[in-house]
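Anyone up for a design puzzle?
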């Protein structure tokens, strides 16, 4: 598991922390109405709007 491999790099996890496999950036908080858009060269665009 990825969590077990972190010790090799002297990285520890605290209770409740999450590992995002393959994430391009850190996780950020989102709120009602937030809109996100990502554009990938040669792949296209993806967007999301978060609502309660």
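Challenge accepted. My sequence:
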């Amino acid at each position: 598991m990825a969590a077990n491999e972190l010790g090799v790099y002297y990285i520890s996890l605290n209770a409740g922390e999450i590992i995002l496999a393959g994430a391009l950036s850190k996780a950020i908080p989102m709120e009602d109405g937030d809109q996100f858009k990502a554009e990938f060269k040669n792949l296209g665009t993806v967007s999301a709007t978060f609502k309660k």
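A detail worth pointing out: Residues 31 and 50 are 7 Å apart (CA to CA).
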